[in-house]
Amino acid sequence: MAATGLNHSDGAKNGEMAAVVDRNIEALLARRQVEEQEKKREDRIADAITRFTGSMPFVYLHVVVFGSWILINTGWMPFIHPFDPSFVILAMAASVEAIFLSTFVLISQNRMQAISDKRAELSLHISLLAEHEVTRIITLVTAVAERMGIEESQNPELKELAKDVAPEQVLDRMEQVGGQASGKNLSEREVKTEKGR
């Protein structure tokens, strides 16, 4: 009976977890659909071209076109008169195509980078909210532990964990540590250079 009750409890928890996961997936899909609908026509065209240029049909098309162009203008197809024996037109067409394709790719990358930045900001915001909630939980649990006379409630680490972390201080500390590490690596390279001399 106890095992049956435990199985029912696990099943209920799994059902709740599945519901939460489904809700999150639906929210993400809905947001993605909204973003797709809000895209400008220029962005849609750039994305479509970028998708096509990154596909195998695009490769096959160029193999056929460039291969036929080369065969015709090198005289391997005598029934067709060569129209670009020096391949100047081919080189110019390939250069112009490369300019436009790289521009379309950059447009798509810039838009994707903007979306990625928004998601990174959202992730940071959620992390800060989670950190604040954990801090409040630690404060409450510590107060309960003190009230119950639990010895662990006097652990000095709890006081540090119960403090809110200021994001700007964390960023400043990261830059400070990163700067020190860069300076240390530079000094080590200079010492090695002097020894090598």
Automatic annotation (TrEMBL):
Top-level division of the source organism's lineage: Bacteria
Listed Basic and acidic residues bias regions: 186-197
Name of the protein in question: DUF1003 domain-containing protein
Lineage of origin: Bacteria, Pseudomonadati, Thermodesulfobacteriota, Desulfuromonadia, Geobacterales
UniProt KW keywords: Membrane, Transmembrane, Transmembrane helix
Pfam families in UniProt: DUF1003
Species the sequence originates in: Geotalea daltonii (strain DSM 22248 / JCM 15807 / FRC-32) (Geobacter daltonii)
Matches recorded under InterPro entries: DUF1003 (IPR010406)
Residues spanning the membrane: 58-80, 86-107
Residue segments, region Disordered: 173-197
